[in-house]
Hints:
This protein is α+β, with helices and mostly antiparallel strands.
Amino acid sequence: MTAETSQTLDRGLRVLKLLADTDHGLTVTELSNKLGVNRTVVYRLLATLEQHALVRRDLGGRARVGLGVLRLGRQVHPLVREAALPALRSLAEDIGATAHLTLVDGADALAVAVVEPTWTDYHVAYRAGFRHPLDRGAAGRAILTARQKSLADHPGYTLTQGELEAGACGAAAPLVGVSGVEGSVGVVMLADAVPERVGPRVLDAAREVADALR
């Protein structure tokens, strides 16, 4: 901590991060131990966060992330989209296919940014706001693959054929090393199979977007 920072705000943010990292919530005692502060401080922090709907407590007294965090999260999409657009434009023009940035939204993959190539005679129409299950399509499958503990034998990108649209294939690579953002960068094209150079190029684009978001 420095003279320019707020200890109370820092503790409140640490509470939110701790709760975000658990599926079953944390008790006041557990938070007290993790933060290294007494229970009275934790009670005050939770009460304040509850007033803003950022934290909720269940009947058993365990604290969990509140729905107010979702409202804040919606404002993240425009910022992420803006950071990703340069890499997506380059990818779309280079490959001649529709490029997209996809983020996790519950059990779905949600396209938050889409760039179509300018020089092709035809390409797949893919719109921001399009969603599909995580286990269908290259974008979602790339994210699920990134959740695995060991990726040593994986090329880093995922290829699919006809899972979301007949006659269309896709390639996607996950965003890696970006705190708080789970997503992928990919392309979708009308072809019998994804050309060999597309996978590595998509992987490079995903790294560019990840670097822009760090």
